Amino acid sequence: MRVLVASNIETTLSSRINADILRLDVRPGDSFRKGDILIAFDCRLPRAQLAKSKAELDSADKTLRARKSLAQYNAVSELEVAVAESQAAMARADVSLYEAQVSLCDVTAPFDGRVVALRVAPYAGVSSGAPLLDILDAGGLEVRLHIPSNSLTRVNQGSRFQVRIDETGKLYEAEVQRIGARVDPVSGTIDVIGHILEPDNNLLAGMSGTATFSQP
Predict the structure, then answer these.
(1) pTM score
(2) Number of domain units in the chain
(3) 76 falls in which pLDDT band (50, 70, 90)?
(4) d(Cα 107, Cα 44) in Å, to the nearest integer?
């Protein structure tokens, strides 16, 4: 039976802000580690706004402390203290808002993997929601195949089988991880997902080959 090597995680990362690309640190085929910066946006404006909001918060906190101190001597009214508290709260909210915006300025890798394709060019302007790059989990490869439904009496989770990959010419031992939830009524087959027991760095998503189950 024919098998396909696939990644168990393959996704497209998108922009969450409107900005220009400042740095594009990866190319198709590059490997990366979880947390690596893949794309950096030009975020001078939100960073400046964050610095301003922090200064305003510092001023609001100082005003609040001063009015609370004066209130102990009845030198200011309760209303003035309440207004100062409200202004400090608004300044704190502004800081949180701009911190959230700045946190979106770098597109970081959610897992260890490889770049499949780039959807943008260096220094290009992108809008929120625009696709940036396709990535996959290179360490989470699995093999997918379809088996005849009448084989379910002999194949179950944990069953061992052999896979010969066309591109590498090698024979690998594999094990069934999951079996599909329904039988295709047209082809009379069911999906089977397995994993290769001994990882091989030469294996890539998209390779294909042949699976063989031993007759019990």
Answers:
(1) 0.76
(2) 2
(3) confident
(4) 16
